[in-house]
Amino acid sequence: MSLADVLARIDSDLPAATDRLMELLRIPSISTDPAYAANCDQAADWLVRDLQSNDIKAEKRATPGHPMVVGHVGDSGPHLLFYGHYDVQPVDPLELWQRAPFDPDLHETENGTIIRGRGSSDDKGQLMTFVEACRAWKAVHGTLPCRITFFFEGEEESGSPSLVPFLEAHKDELTADLALVCDTSMVSRGVPSIAAQLRGMLKDEFTIVGPRIDLHSGHYGGPGLNPLREISRIIASFHDPETGRVAVDGFYEGVHEVPAEQLRQWQNCGFDEADYLKSVGYSQPHGEQGYSTLEQQWARPTLEVNGIWGGYNGAGSKTVIPSEAHCKLTCRLVGDMDPDALRDRIRKHVEDQLSPDAKVVWDNDLEGSRASVMNIHRPEFEAARGALSDEWNREAVFTGMGGSIPVVGFFKDILGMDAMLIGYANEDDAIHSPNEKYDLNSFHKGIRSWARVLDALTRS
Amino acid sequence: MSLADVLARIDSDLPAATDRLMELLRIPSISTDPAYAANCDQAADWLVRDLQSNDIKAEKRATPGHPMVVGHVGDSGPHLLFYGHYDVQPVDPLELWQRAPFDPDLHETENGTIIRGRGSSDDKGQLMTFVEACRAWKAVHGTLPCRITFFFEGEEESGSPSLVPFLEAHKDELTADLALVCDTSMVSRGVPSIAAQLRGMLKDEFTIVGPRIDLHSGHYGGPGLNPLREISRIIASFHDPETGRVAVDGFYEGVHEVPAEQLRQWQNCGFDEADYLKSVGYSQPHGEQGYSTLEQQWARPTLEVNGIWGGYNGAGSKTVIPSEAHCKLTCRLVGDMDPDALRDRIRKHVEDQLSPDAKVVWDNDLEGSRASVMNIHRPEFEAARGALSDEWNREAVFTGMGGSIPVVGFFKDILGMDAMLIGYANEDDAIHSPNEKYDLNSFHKGIRSWARVLDALTRS
């Protein structure tokens, strides 16, 4: 029996693998909204049963939040831990979906067949590429090539509050030689990519409180302090409008310039800047002046506003000066930026901007994570790069990533475990947006890729 | 039979008058929200029946929007038209109400008994002061002292779209010698007030459109244009943060300084600035520097933001760069400011601020009205001032008003009819806010005031 047999098995089993993914996609496991807690539990149960059907010792483990799924198989060879998450983003605005988000289907497009549905790309579809690779391997060989631990969480889209305590409580069980993570994109369609650095994340939320009650804008318009104007002025003050730089004092502490050699590699990694911008309706990049689009996305920090609300937003008009205005924000961190120090700086910036009679109230329930740089000098990275290049007939590249995968930092800090991030998503997958999809080709070749990577990591 | 008999009748009938008002307050006639259209109709029917019960020939008149109520009585003496509106503001945020907004009651406070409920002050309670004065007059005298037309609309809180066509179509029927309006406040508790000038109003609403779809703030944070940041910057640009002045080019065209003599009168009209500010949690006025609080409220124009929304506002966080951000705004106009010219100036200001790749979409369904100055040299004004002074044992004053009552301008422009605005609301009535109330004392002495005014205007 050979790798070719496993790949053939993957090809012939693709319709069944797709059906299994569809089952998982039908479960609305939105972790951030407590209304879907039972569905998160249901997704965890589905995964436990699916792993068990492949002779993996799998269990659902309770946490104060949504459960973890942990599975073990094998007892010789290198110990790999595969991480994915079964929870998904909220689906609003629902009216923009062309098909109900939890009624997945296969759909033909000019770029080939796609799997439509919330979580198809982030991260259920990607997670299942590894599970299906293992299923095919087992079917052909009767066993897996090494010791593998499966570790799925259900809180990735809501700040992973249970993750650190769980890792700390199960250090011995979860520490492997290397973690594999499938939650990232390819830098360009058909270019296999290993993410070599990730941005960190800081979340915060604040409310500006002005008058004691909502006011009539006739009676108080003029002398009245308006929290909507106040919050707009504060948000506008976050950035220098000329340079696009964040104007919070000390924001860039710990940010390093990208070495020239790395920049050169990025310039040749197949990233199509014009297509990346045009696909969402941009004619130019809008970030910091003096940095390329890829640098803005992978190597520069951001302070981004994700939600603003206050006052009247119904039909018609209402002549109100509201008592409160609200803002949700997230920062992306790079280099050695410290999320705790950054939170303090942003809060001080906001407090320094406040008008007399305005107050700010912070949500103290949100977390931060540092940026991560992968240890690409380990031999597994070169082995995986070769395996991916073979599958995609295209040299695999080491890329940066604009997103944040905090678990990578926790694996390193708590378990001392390096991670290797390989994903098959495309930029147009619309993750976190209406009409999320995953290319059937990503799913199929993703499964094949993992089989090749498993082979490359365990061939001695 | 004398005025004293009418006043005595008002006193003895107060419990029944209060019960009638409660009936009207129970009808949720929110005009701006189409879901309450049937309730607006119901409020109109209630008023028709109530007028008819007082031998007034009253009818509900259909419009393309909510119906008008028109009633006529008498055929000699001066012809007065009384205007009020039966529609009310929306009630959100509902959770801040101490009692359901459409379940009115009497409630004891340290400032006396109050009538609680949406519309108790604006404008159902005020409207009924005149109706009840007429009822008492009729009960005592068997007839009313002059020809009176009752004219109630149901779209005042939603821009009065049917008002101008209705006035134009019924010029002869609705043109009286003088309009009486009860929709204004007293300048301070217990100080009877006749509003001598009103600010005008301009409403507008816009959407900033950035990327074609909602984006992931990891994948696009940096190079991505964020409509939330864009709209915040634009809103912040509306005002000069140093002076509090509106920074839209040409905004102050048509604004006149208040004559020194008028300013002196205002300074002595009983307005308690500290109380006015403190009652809503302010320690200082927040409008244009160099102008008193009363000037900022009565004599200076404003550009106020009444609602902002965009992105995620649910539980937890969502790392999204939304495709759109929205803003509702209103301006208060003074002097000779032209609402149409002002709309153009504001729109140009917004368009001039737009970043590349950002678009603005305007709501073209919103209207404007000029400021109004009353003709206080007519003898009726001095007669009414005397009547009010008698009732309240306090010299009645001519005041400005921060609010806008567009019907006053339409009466003048379309019917050539002056208006006299007398109201008994207090600044703490929380109109347009949760927990709206009307002092029972305002209701009682308001009815008595109208009886005295009718007497003063018809005594010859």
Automatic annotation (TrEMBL), chains A, B:
Q: Which InterPro entries match?
A: Cyt/Met_Dipeptidase, Peptidase_M20, Peptidase_M20_dimer
Q: Which residues form the Peptidase M20 dimerisation domain?
A: 207-356
Q: Return the protein name.
A: M20/M25/M40 family metallo-hydrolase
Q: Which Pfam families does the record cross-reference, listed alphabetically?
A: M20_dimer, Peptidase_M20
Q: Which UniProt keywords apply?
A: Hydrolase, Metal-binding, Protease
Q: Which domain of life is it from?
A: Bacteria
Q: Does the keyword DNA damage apply?
A: no
Q: Which residues form a coiled coil?
A: none
**Native organism:** Ruegeria spongiae
